[in-house]
Design a protein that fits this description.
By secondary structure, this protein is an alpha/beta fold. 23% of the residues lie in helices and 17% in strands. It contains 12 helices and 17 strands. The structure holds flavin-adenine dinucleotide.
Length: 551
């Protein structure tokens, strides 16, 4: 690409980088109060047909690429092996830590589990102490501070859930706007197993319409939920809620296939706008009062680090070398149980029943996690991930094993608390550049070893649960120390009071800047023992609400 460089000076009130979960919410809130917003998204705006239902090309099994980005070519990252070897990785390769890249980002195709974190998730360091070598810390806000924003996300975006059980371990002040989706056979089986163990269960809250809501249809219970777009548009992401609301005001300009290269500052070091590449290959500088970085935990850190200037020689917000550190995601614990009779009934989306009994207060364990049944498994994923090593990979014996076991699998899984490490980090690679010529993210380190003890504790609970359901055999996988991130990436621009140990204040404003904000998973100090998106959305309501108030 040989771009024509020019500066088109357009004055916006706010430029938001990234039209995913966090950025979509802030765009909606600002546009609705009359602010002129430029929303930049490097991916495309995709229809249901664009995303398709290819079992080999989707966000769960990207054998031939993702269905919602990033595109396989021109978007490399560099992963550092434990031995210190730098390896260039492309989006569908191991170690890339991809989420998505399109309007809505992960929320376009996610499973939509909509968990609030627990009060103790916001005070992990106070509760457990700080394991040596970790960067475990308390949030600068409490669950109660965020509760109104959780509620707003649940109502404005649309969450279905069971109010009778949802209040376990966390106060709630308003019921869910929709009842839960129907229970299926695996959910009923898990409920009876939990009863036998004396464990509590609750229905999995989902950002999916169980009844018509927000002028869109209810879920059709199909078998292609996680990793795919919804045929009835019942799955609620920012692409069909806050972003259309922003566009309907006429105040928001959404530019797709537009890649932000850097956040610009003036001679005094104050943020003045963004330089980005347009779909047509032009390099444009746009100016604004405020810039909000919402590129997701890896790309937001990369962007801040790439925005060096004489006043900010280490990147924006990085005077104390905090940007990019404590990258987290989720280790997934759980177990597979093989049931004596079929329990598969094909009623989607599938994730119905959870226990939160082990989120905290497990003797000798830092944190814990949630366990729930999984979304309906695609047959090809079952074939790739679940066939034991001693079963032939093809032929009659293989087919018979598949026929017998697919309908008898009881699969439970769930995210465990990761104990953050300062060495698990995003930096910028000195050599490798993407297709726009921008230095790419370099990923290095691992999560803290405490995470493995929590993981082992949780997979043992998983095995216990499937056995109590009547499984003839129960299996779970040991895990080793790895760098996490992936679809649940978080933590690289953590909130905090102290600029020496955090990147933003408790409103998502980058320390040392009055007009630069972060609104995405980067803000998470710790990533909870739950899927993170409802917390990311709630934080974006908090950041956007603060901007509206403080403007
Ligand atoms: C298959 C799948 C299933 C999931 N299931 C669940 C679930 O059940 N529950 C749950 O809680 N979470 C789930 N997630 C994760 C959830 O989608 C993410 O946690 C969430 O989207 C992260 O929000 P974010 O705002 O941090 O970043 P994102 O939503 O990823 O938004 C970042 C956006 O910024 C864009 N961008 C980045 N850099 C730039 C740049 N320089 N210029 C322009 N644009 C840029 C990206 O393309 C992207 O669109 C799932 C994700 C996937 C993919």
């Amino acid at each position: 690409m040989t771009p024509q460089k020019y500066d088109a000076i357009i004055k916006y009130d706010a430029i938001i980088i990234g039209a995913g979960a966090g950025g979509g919410v802030v765009a909606g809130l600002l546009a609705e109060v009359g602010k002129r917003v430029l929303l930049l998204e490097r991916g495309r705006r995709l229809s249901f047909e664009d995303i398709g239902r290819d079992h080999l090309r989707n966000q769960r099994l990207p054998q031939y690429g993702f269905n919602v980005g990033p595109d396989p070519d021109g978007n490399p990252r560099v992963a550092l092996t434990p031995e210190g070897k730098a390896i260039v990785v492309n989006p569908i390769e191991g170690g890339y830590q991809a989420n998505a890249a399109c309007v809505g980002s992960g929320t376009r195709v996610y499973g939509a589990q909509a968990w609030r974190f627990l009060p103790d998730d916001f005070r992990m360091a106070s509760k457990y102490g700080v394991p040596p070598g970790s960067s475990l810390a308390d949030w600068p806000i409490t669950y109660d501070d965020l509760a109104p924003d959780y509620e707003r996300a649940e109502w404005e975006m649309g969450v279905s859930g069971d109010e009778a059980t949802a209040g376990r371990k966390r106060p709630r002040h308003r019921p869910y706007p929709m009842p839960p989706l129907p229970l299926n056979t695996q959910g009923r089986t898990l409920q009876s197993g939990a009863r036998a163990l004396g464990w509590g269960t609750q229905r999995v809250p989902l950002l999916i319409n169980s009844v018509p809501y927000n002028n869109r249809d209810a879920c059709a219970h199909c078998q292609h939920c996680v990793g795919f777009a919804c045929p009835t548009d019942a799955k609620n992401g920012t692409q069909n809620t806050l972003i259309p609301r922003a566009l309907a005001t006429g105040n928001c300009t959404l530019e797709t296939e537009a890649m932000a290269e850097r956040i610009d500052t003036d001679g005094a070091g104050r943020v003045v706008g963004v330089t980005y590449w347009t779909k047509a290959g032009e390099r444009v500088t746009a100016t604004s009062e405020v810039v909000v970085a919402s590129g997701g935990a890896v790309e937001t850190a990369r962007l801040l680090l790439n925005s060096k200037s004489p006043q900010h020689p280490h990147g924006l917000g990085n005077a104390h070398d905090q940007v990019g550190r404590s990258l987290q995601g989720h280790y997934y614990a759980g177990a597979v149980g093989w049931m004596p009779a079929p329990i598969w009934d094909g009623i989607g989306p599938g994730a119905t029943t959870a226990t939160v009994d082990f989120n905290h207060d497990n003797e000798g364990i830092v944190g814990g996690g949630m366990l729930a049944d999984d979304f309906i498994t695609l047959p090809i994923i079952f074939q790739k991930w679940r066939v034991p090593a001693d079963v032939p990979r093809w032929g009659l014996a293989h087919k018979e094993w598949m026929r017998h076991h697919y309908t008898r699998m009881l699969l439970i899984m769930g995210p465990v608390h990761e104990i953050p490490s300062p060495d698990a980090r995003v930096s910028v690679d000195p050599d490798v550049k993407d297709k726009w010529g921008i230095p790419v993210a370099r990923l290095s380190g691992t999560t803290h070893p405490e995470t493995l003890r929590t993981y082992d504790f949780m997979r043992a609970r998983g095995e216990e649960w499937v056995r109590a359901c009547g499984a003839e055999d129960a299996r779970s996988n040991p895990s080793g120390l790895v760098l996490s991130g992936g679809q649940h990436q978080a933590g690289t621009c953590r909130m905090g009071h102290d600029p020496q140990t955090s990147v933003t204040d408790l409103w998502g404003r980058v320390h040392g800047h009055d007009n630069l904000y972060v609104a995405d998973g980067s803000l998470h100090v710790t990533n909870g023992g739950f899927n993170p998106v409802l917390t990311i959305l709630a934080l974006a309501y908090r950041v956007g609400g603060h901007l509206v108030q403080a403007w």
